[in-house]
Design the sequence.
């Protein structure tokens, strides 16, 4: 079946540190992959996406590359800010249904 | 362009009651999906509607139902509420075509007492 596995949180970083949040998936076929971010009290915001192998999604300094050989879609950012503190969800889209990981809480301190 | 709008933002109901949640999608989007978010189970897919037809369904009991209107607006109904139905209910809209991303509303926080 389809599933997404994310690294456990929370991830705690100082401002300007490098961020990696690991995400691996299991899927039939070739799903699209997404990262969503959820700020406190809000819904999910689409952060970036990739629709096929070797695609790189990027937005607001965040990047993730669709790696078919390792079935991974790790989220990276070179220099995090306090305002990046949120919960990040990796997801795959298969037959119009999003399958989410459990979410990783990121806490960035000044 | 207005985003996905969900009403109400907060609801408090008692066990046994029923509740209806509303979702207005982004203009031009024909697909509306519903998700339940809880601390224990995370984000779980409820169902998806496209052009007024349920196209996909998750593993929830029949107490959870939905519908979509001709203007793509959608409602979700939960009957005979249970304490475990307390959750954030998120609606998402998309064009409904292959690989089209979902755009989420801010959710309705339902508390069942």
Sequence:
């Amino acid at each position: 079946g389809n599933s997404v596995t994310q690294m456990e949180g929370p991830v705690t970083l100082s401002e300007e540190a490098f961020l990696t949040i690991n995400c691996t998936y299991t899927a039939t076929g070739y799903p699209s992959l997404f990262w969503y971010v959820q700020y406190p009290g809000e819904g999910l915001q689409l952060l970036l996406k990739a629709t096929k192998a070797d695609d790189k999604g990027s937005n607001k300094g965040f990047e993730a590359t669709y790696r078919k050989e390792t079935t991974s879609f790790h989220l990276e950012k070179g220099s995090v800010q306090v305002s990046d503190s949120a919960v990040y969800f990796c997801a795959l889209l298969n037959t119009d249904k999003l399958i989410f990981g459990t979410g990783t809480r990121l806490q960035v301190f000044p | 362009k207005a985003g996905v709008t969900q009403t109400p933002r907060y609801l408090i109901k008692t066990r046994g009651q029923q509740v209806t949640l509303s979702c207005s999608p982004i203009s031009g989007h024909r697909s509306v999906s519903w998700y339940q978010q809880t601390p224990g189970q995370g984000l779980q897919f409820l169902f998806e509607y496209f052009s007024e037809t349920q196209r996909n369904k998750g593993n929830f009991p029949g107490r959870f139902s939905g519908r979509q209107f001709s203007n793509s607006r959608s409602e979700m109904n939960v009957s005979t509420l249970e304490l475990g139905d307390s959750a954030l209910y998120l609606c998402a809209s998309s064009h409904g075509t292959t690989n089209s991303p979902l755009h989420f509303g801010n959710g309705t926080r339902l508390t069942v007492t």
The CA atoms of residues 31 and 94 of chain A lie 5 Å apart. The longest strand of chain A covers residues 86-94.
